[in-house]
Amino acid sequence: MDDRATNDPSAVIEADRAHVWHHLLQHKPYETVDPRIMVEGRGMRVWDITGKEHLDAVSGGVWTVNVGFGRTEIADAVRDQLVTMNYWAGAQGTVPAARFAERLIEKMPGLSRVYFGSSGSEANEKAFKMVRQISAKHHGGRKSKILYRDRDYHGTTIACLSAGGQKERNAQYGPFVPEFVAVPHCLEYRAQEGLAGEDYGVRAAEEIEKVILREGPETVGALCLEPITAGGGIIVPPRGYWEKVQEICRKYEILLHIDEVVCGMGRTGRWFGYEQFGVQPDIVTLAKGVASGYAAISACVTTEAVFEMFKDDTDPLGYFRDISTFGGCTGGPAAALANMDIIEREDLCGNSARTGAYFGEQLHALADRQPLIGDVRGIGLFQGIELVADRRTKEPLDERQVMAAVADCLKQGVIVGATNRSVPGYNNTILFAPALIAGQGEIDEIVGAVEGALSRLPG
After folding, report:
1. Best CA proximity match to 76, nearest among 308, 295, 376, 228
2. How many beta carbons lie within 10 A of that of residue 375, not counting itself?
3. Does 60 share its domain with 78?
4. For residue 19, is it within any domain?
5. In terms of Cα–Cα distance, which of 64, 57, 61 is closest to 433?
6. 16 assigned to some structural domain
7. Residue 311 domain-assigned?
8. Whether residue 357 sits in one domain with residue 341
9. Fewer CB atoms inside 10 Å of the end CB: C or N, the chain?
């Protein structure tokens, strides 16, 4: 190996520029601009290859590093497990998988079975396959449609994009898998029919029922929703919404699949986002914060009733005929166990609730001072501000200006996120998901950077 690759920053940059295909980025600018390369993280601070320090307000860029960087106890747990037994195919068990599944289920009353994979997209694929196989085995293939919500995101594979409510993420990747059907969003700030509060929450859920009735309840197998819409703009469902959604699913015998890939493991101040709304899902998918990015792991968690539908030894094809190669890597559940230990020991769910409430207060105070902020929304350490050109008309701020504000924050040494080339015409929300260890000092620094950036946008 060329020593320059580890000792010479310019060599690393050139190797990256020449050979790495980055996620979600246009590479044309890299012909003249250096790619950013991150080299170290401690707590909520990260340093790039130039030595510049940043405060990370998005937990590793994509809402993953829930317990912060540099947690040696997680790395040690992974190392110890890998030298003992690094891998075995998921057709058999391993000690960390069994132990983590048990610990996880203790946090999820009403659920009982954990199917391991290696990414959120994979977890959602598993759930979709379960729904389709249940339809084939128990409903003559009729109950195969899967409903998804406008502005929600469930992953990057073709089936997950088929269930994706972000048109710009989906563009150019069709044709998509049939029998995925959209239902309307539930963003109160941009409410259909001008309703508000619980009136709008119930009405938004009733719009789902209209789609079910239009498609035929006997054809709909599952409804897949994020508990809080994440990349589509941090959309917290209004009061009454989730209660009505649960009622509708039970009425028409539709499986409720909640995608907790982002919200799970303490992000909203509870272990899982759905706990904020008092609903009981049939399927829950998890990834990101499960191991805080220290190892790859995802989980598709189901009720015993769902699991039982695949126990039929009279049908040679009746079991769940699925495999995840790296769902058998033991580093994931070992990291997840250590991650869970930290969340419990340091009361990071509680800290997310407390510091998240302070964060929301500071963002509302900023909105009082800054007319470009049309709406503030979020729960726990999951917050967003929707930027508008005109508060009265709610005209969205141009995406280029939103990204200019994000770039300004980066120049100040604070990394924030934004809806970017996802929802046509509404890529105007700045997104925050700092690690669950965040304190008021870090929140003040984030809010201060955003205020400075917005104040410098052209009028």
Report:
1. 295
2. 20
3. no
4. no
5. 57
6. no
7. yes
8. no
9. C
Examine the fold and report which residue of 326, 345, 364 is the final residue of a domain before the chain moves on: 345
Residues 400 and 269 in one domain: no
279 and 194 housed in the same domain: yes
Quote the number of domains for the chain.
Answer: 2
Looking at the fold, whether 214 and 157 belong to one and the same domain comes out as yes
The CATH number that applies at residue 358 is: 3.90.1150.10
N- to C-terminal Cα distance for the chain?
52
Range of the domain at 134: 73-345
Bridging pattern class, strands 220-225 and 283-286: unpaired
The residue from 316, 345, 374 where one domain ends is 345
In a domain, 324, yes or no: yes
pLDDT per residue of the chain (459 residues) written in tens, 0 to 9: 344 445 789 999 999 999 999 999 999 999 999 999 999 999 999 999 999 999 999 999 999 999 999 999 999 999 999 999 999 999 999 999 999 999 999 999 999 999 999 999 999 999 999 999 999 999 999 999 999 999 999 999 999 999 999 999 999 999 999 999 999 999 999 987 778 899 999 999 999 999 999 999 999 999 999 999 999 999 999 999 999 999 999 999 999 999 999 999 999 999 999 999 999 999 999 999 999 999 999 999 999 999 999 998 899 999 999 999 999 999 999 999 999 999 999 999 999 999 999 999 999 999 999 999 999 999 999 999 999 999 999 999 999 999 999 999 999 999 999 998 999 999 999 999 999 999 999 999 999 999 999 999 986
Whole-angstrom Cα distance, residue 434 to residue 352?
Answer: 9
Tokens for 205, please give them.
């859920």
**Would you put residue 228 in left (φ > 0), alpha (ψ -120 to 50) or beta?**
beta
Do 85 and 178 share a structural domain?
yes
Pair (403, 429) in one structural domain: yes
